[in-house]
Amino acid sequence: MSILSKDRIIARPGFSRWLVPPAALCVHLCIGQAYAFSVFNLPMTKLIGITKSAPDDWQLTDLGWIFSLGIFFLGASSALLGRWVEEGGPRRAMFAAALCWSGGFMVSAVGVYLHNIWIIYFGYGVLGGFGLGIGYISPVSTLIKWFPDRPGMATGMAIMGFGGGAFIASPLSVWLMSKFSTATHVGVAETFIVMGAIYFCFMMVGATIVRVPAPGWKPEGYVAPAQARKRITNKNVFVYQALKTPQFWLIWWVLCLNVTAGIGVLGQASAMSQEMFPARVTAVAAAGFVGLMSLFNMGGRFFWASFSDYIGRRNTYFVFFALGTVLYAVVPYTGGIRSVSLFVLCFLVIISMYGGGFATVPAYLKDMFGTRYVGAIHGLLLTAWSMAGIFGPALVNYIRAYNVAHGVAAREAYNSTMYVMAVLLVIGFICNFFVKPVHEKHHMSHEAADAMGMAD
Amino acid sequence: MARKNAQSGGNGLKLALAWGFVGIPLCWGVIQTAINALKLFQ
């Protein structure tokens, strides 16, 4: 399929590189829907009973696996297919992601229609998960090549879209279900079909717009440093060679610990705010708090990644870990002095750094391993996200449950969790401290680079 | 010169369309979320 090949999308002279971020956003805004999948949970427990769950209806515990499978296959597919994505170019990857993502919705619609949960596990979980993984990494290296002067900002823009996708998907899903629901029908299957169709079209616009820079292209006025700077290499490391470097595993832990600290509280923010401030934070206010956190999660992705272009990637993570440690240690104090505003402020900054960690890491990898295989290496690194997705919420839930079971008051049950998170961030700080430039023995030789089409 | 001007004009339209295509739905979603978030302060 030559129309999808990398050679067919080399930009002609005069092409504006500012067309590439919207192409990336077309994909990330769609796959970001994953964060809003929970809006379907309650309606899907009433597919038979309609107004309330019938005995044969699915339980929330059954439905929880759909999202978990999706995130698991995001990590698995980005790790497995990273090289395929990198070598085939962004259009082929975006097209594949569109097929998998929208296909996942269509298959899930069949699962809802037949009331077979296994079809939905396969549709949204496996097929959709592949769409998530391929789509997430598809524009990363292309953006870095178009913006060698601002790689953090460029990848931050795309990954911000992943955070923002839920903002669109959540109200859209609710609105569509309200249109399709009747007295005898919940309308989930039709909503899946419409969303799958919309997402396919939207992602295909991205695949159509995207271009790769011509060999040797540089932004006007940009002079590439002749010599590698202290922690920014101008060499390349082959994707699987990167796995043999301590830098890859140190950054893996840096991402994993930063995400673990954020993801645990993200899922528990509503309950935590109500339990720490009983009678002061209502359920409605807690929902508002969660919304505000989502906005800071998205904004932090763009802000911190752009900021990293000025202070450097390693320093940005030092800020995340140092500031995060202080803020987590302060949270129990906010409960003690009953200050809701200080509590909210702490978590908004923490969650902005959680998002910032995702958005800054592609540029960190580029600094360490070069641009050639950065997308594929990023794919391998996303397994850290899968791991953090399991450990973060589990840590928060189990420590809280342990405390409550041992007689700790509900409003103080999260205190020890906050200190554990602070310790995790201290470990992250230490890992980040040990990130040094990659030894030259790992760099690709000129012959290998030429053989692998290093012209791009 | 005229060709360069026409090219930059064409790029401007493409940029507006592309950014509008992703920016309008994103802004709509952000506004919806911000309205919900305001409940925290009520």
Question: Which key features would you list for this structure?
Answer:
heterodimer, A: 456 residues, mainly alpha, Growth Hormone, Chain: A, 2 domains, 17 helices, globular, B: 42 residues, 1 helix, 86% helix
Structure description:
The complex is a heterodimer of chains A (456) and B (42). Chain A is mostly helical and 456 residues long. Chain A has two domains: 17-209, MFS general substrate transporter like domains (Growth Hormone, Chain: A), CATH 1.20.1250.20; 239-442, MFS general substrate transporter like domains (Growth Hormone, Chain: A, Up-down Bundle). In chain A, 71% of the residues lie in helices and 0% in strands. Chain A is built from 17 helices and no strands. Chain A has helices spanning 20-31, 41-44, 60-88, 90-114, 117-137, 140-146, 151-180, 188-209, 239-242, 246-276, 283-311, 313-336, 340-369, 374-381, 383-405, 415-433, 446-451. In chain A, helix 6 (140-146) crosses helix 7 and helix 7 runs antiparallel to helix 11 (283-311). Chain B has 42 residues and is mainly α. Helices cover 86% and strands 0% of the residues of chain B. Chain B contains one helix and no strands. The radius of gyration of chain B is 18 Å and the shape is rod-shaped. The model of chain B has no long low-confidence stretch (mean pLDDT 82). Chains A and B meet through helix 1, helix 7 and helix 11 of A and helix 1 of B.
